[in-house]
Design brief:
By secondary structure, the protein is an alpha/beta fold. It is built from 5 helices and 5 strands. Strand 3, helix 3 and strand 4 form a beta-alpha-beta unit.
Length: about 110
């Protein structure tokens, strides 16, 4: 599924999406960036409360095409700048990590059938 289709299907707020046709293969939910480095699969959207530039760096390292920031947290300017440089999409939602992850899973499962 493309990032653009996922955003639309889930109703996420696109803050920055440089490559809307990027393929999304899943989601990984964690607020511990060392855990993300160790376990996040390539192509997964990172679902987290972490709203800082280091989150973008970790996504670049693991091949995550997007960060979904939950609880409608602000996206600081330095995170936005890092995402622009690295080509990582930034999304927001008012939902918590669990609800957002379930929504992504349901949409991906539905399209896989």
């Amino acid at each position: 599924m493309t990032l653009q289709n996922l955003i639309h299907a889930c109703g996420f707020e696109p803050v920055l999406v440089a490559a809307p046709q990027t393929e999304v293969t899943g989601a990984y939910t964690s607020d511990l960036l060392s855990d993300v480095i160790a376990h996040c699969p390539d192509g997964a959207v990172l679902v987290t409360v972490q709203n800082h530039k280091n989150t973008v760096a970790v996504c670049t390292l693991v091949g995550a095409p997007a960060v979904l920031v939950v609880h409608r947290r602000d996206i600081p300017e330095d995170m936005l700048d890092a995402a622009r440089r690295e080509g990582v999409a930034l999304l927001r939602t008012p939902q918590d990590q669990f609800a957002a992850s379930c929504k992504i899973g349901a949409v991906l499962e539905k399209t896989a059938k």
